[in-house]
Amino acid sequence: MAISMGKGSVGVLTGVFIASLAVVVAVLLLRTYNLPELKVAWKGKGAPRIELEEDEREQLYEALKGALRIPTVSFSPSEQNTTALEEFKEYIKSAFPRVFNSSLVEYELVGGYSHLFNVQGSDNSLLPYMLLAHLDVVPATPEGWDLPPFSGEEKDGYIYGRGSLDDKSRVIGILQALEFLFKKGYKPRRSFYIGLGHDEEISGRHGAKEIVKTLETRNVKLEYLLDEGFGVLDGVIYGTKRPIALIGVTEKGAITLNLTVNSPPGHSSMPPRESSIGILSAALSRLEQNRLPNLFGTGPEGSTFEQLANEFYWPLNIMMANLWFFNPIISRLMALTPSGNAIVRTTTALTIVNGGIKANVIPATATATVNFRLHPAQTVEEVLNMVSEIIMDERVILSAIKAFDPLPISPYDEENFGYQTLKRTITDLFSVPVAPAVCTVNTDSRHFVNLTESVYRFSPVVMTAEDLGRVHGLNERISREGFETGIQFYWQLIQNSDSDTVPVHRHSEL
Ligand SMILES: CCCCCCCCCCCCCCCCCC(=O)N[C@@H](Cc1ccccc1)C(=O)O
Ligand SMILES: [Zn+2]
Ligand SMILES: [Zn+2]
Description:
By secondary structure, the protein is α+β, with helices and mostly antiparallel strands. It folds into two domains: 54-250 and 408-506, Zn peptidases (Aminopeptidase, 3-Layer(aba) Sandwich), CATH 3.40.630.10; 253-404, 2-Layer Sandwich (Alpha-Beta Plaits). It is 36% helix and 21% strand. A hairpin with a 3-residue loop joins β4 and β5 (114-119). The radius of gyration is 26 Å and the shape is globular. Ligand LSBFCXF6 binds at residues 165-166, 169-170, 173, 201-203, 228-231, 441-443, 459-461, 463, 471, 483, 486-487. It comes from Leptobrachium leishanense.
């Protein structure tokens, strides 16, 4: 049936279209006008800052440099520098005598090289919290570094070394803050734990996991836990006006999947129509070409952008405040960069491939490893089903050697003590907006979910995109000022956590 329209009906339709457009624009303008104001805590009025004497300041830099000189490298799941891990034990004992000798501290070694401190508070009615960090580092060779990676040397106000960002500055920062607090006569009201794992870089099996077991046998429950995370990002999130602090409230899940193809071996002069290498390569190519679905807005990443809407330049501010309408555009824009893509979907990374031993031998087997990082809205089971459908070849044998679902989403509401105490301490010190976010990498904190629902990831340092590239990369370094500010952060956080009430917030522009 043909549909014919006279001039009059065209006019009516145009009128309806213009009226609908006007309504949409009006709603958008209204929502822009009423953008949720960012709620911030006290402006710079937290616990008093540490006032450091010049010799104390030098002492804290030396403490970090000494730690960087000990090569506590995790090479592979079965190879760690245990001599360095032994040395690190003795090192922290001599660098932080007040922490180790205080009658308020119960110290124990866990899993051979990890450290657990229980700092006794005066009020047992308050649940303890925990600060977590790790002392192992990824390998580094001097090539490409301006200063050798295990020299702890300094240049232009920056301390260089593997671990200066990830994660020895936090190990030393936390212990140094406590050392200074004890020196000033501090006695905590709320008990807390400090956990220093020795194998985070190879999954935390003997360090963080053993710490969890130890605490579980004592029925310990935590008010909140804080581990490493992205920190205060400066110029990293496209279109933002100023640095922004992101608190990781969840972590992506992960699957490490092995792919194996077996086929009859033989002489290369008479190759089969399809070889194990060819079949495997085709499967890998299908995986790379067919990305898993864009799920932007179905996990907490939607909250990150909605809460930060005012921080974006026009017109992104309007779009972020109205994701219900602009989601299709924003999700596609985000997928254009590797870091944005990591936020919107489960990512697929081809990381290892093996096959063949000699130029004139058709190999019997070809293998590959693919690493997936799961968006918070997906499960291991769903992803494995999708992957099988994409590969669609029964000759490719799949075996998941490691797999875990995305971590639970920790609370970030106005009533949550841990989140709000962190937020307050961050705004006190950095005067920047704070928002919840998805952590796209994994940390030791993922082992602690049975001890508390409030697991957060945040590193107290301002990071540019260039700095982020130094983590696990070349010329990892931290500025003197950045390190000192980080210590101020722990100094304040420990004192702020003594409160028994959630910090009061007021609406304010920073
Ligand atoms: C007192 C001063 C404090 C200053 C702190 C400065 C810290 C800046 C840190 C910025 C680093 C961002 C966090 C990086 C975390 C990387 C975590 C990671 O790579 N995890 C691995 C874990 C893993 C998983 C499976 C097997 C082995 C390892 C990952 O692949 O996700
Ligand atoms: Zn780390
Ligand atoms: Zn690392």
